Amino acid sequence: MTGTAHSFSWRSIVLPAYLPTLLFSLGEGAMIPVIPVVATERGASLALAGLIAAMLMVGELLGDLPAGWLVARIGERAAMIGAAALASAGTLLALLVPTTWALGIGVFLLGLATAVFGLARHAFLTSYVPAAVRARALSTLAGVFRAGWAIGPFTAAAIIAWTGSSAAVFWVLVASCAAVVVVLLVLPDPEKVFGAALRARATSVTPVGGADGSPADGAGGVWHAIVTYRGVLARIGTGVGVLAALRASRTVILPLWAVSIGMRPDAAALVIGIAATIDFALFYVSGHVMDRHGRLWSAIPGLVGLSVGHIVLAFTHDVPAAVAWFTGVAILLGIANGLSSGVILTVGADLAPKAHPAPFLGAYRTIADAGQAAAPLAVAAVTSALSIMVASAAMGVIGLVGAAMLWRWIPRYVPRQPRHPAPDDAERDEGWTPAADT
Q1: Per its UniProt entry, which superkingdom is the organism in (predicted)?
Q2: Of 74-88, 90-104, 410-424, minimum mean pLDDT range
């Protein structure tokens, strides 16, 4: 183990990196499963409810474009405080104006806030965590998100059972965002605490960029990064986008499916919470597998499992034991998602320039979130035109195609052992240097 790995302290990043994430994700985890329920209570059709739920991912996609620029200029703490304030404003709009359009706008604003919040955490850990433990650190970040998403649905179920109102759950997110702001104001700014020295020692992996490991334009904008790194983003990014799409489809299809088969909102939230708990329980396993065996062995089982789950679900809508099948498939999807915990974050960190990661990560997350945004919109469109069963099956097939892409490209761009680019490698013209230590 290197001196870098020895000098790194997990304790040093627990509060600044993980506590705000847990609080924010707890609020999201409570609110997201009830969005389709609230939409239908306000008169939306099943397809419109899916469209409103999709506004979260659309907001994340559009938020990725300025997020890299914003975090690079004002710092991660200020960006996260602003994101928490924006999320609260959107949630209050959705709560206090009881219409479907207000709900859609509020969910969209939450998506914008989520993009900024997530990129700030991702950029921080990419810069300050040594490569030897990067997968575990980022899988832990993903696991903390999942912890919030596991606790949130149980909180939602309890509030619905207590108040009889699905919309009352929205107050959980408002309270969580207030707690995030308090924590960020009380704790020291991590960028000042860790400083440039830690940023420098995280560079034991050769990133995308020039031969010296620097980006072609490290401080440039997201659009410049998309053009500069178009090859790797088109190949790895597309596969990662499919994985993000299946994850997003899961978060929309499960609540919609529960509404479609007539489950009670509190019962559906309970099932989703159980699946999220299983998902959370696997996050460290995923990080350990990635650090020991490579990123591929987390990405492929997870994406194949998500795909199979969608396909199986498509054939269970009208069977007598529809609720039991729904429960079983929800658990399968939770297991599959847990097995791939942190892989999107980790692969992005492997590829990003360490001196100025935010622009590249903004571009990378834009590609991933494009898939994440497109999936719920596609689910809503196919559900409206055909049925929710066809939508689920179609997403499963797309997922299998994405798994094949990742199987092809991850070994090339993120190899387990160091290698040098071939002299005639087409990526050489784009300034690509493969990761040297994964």
Answers
A1: Bacteria
A2: 410-424
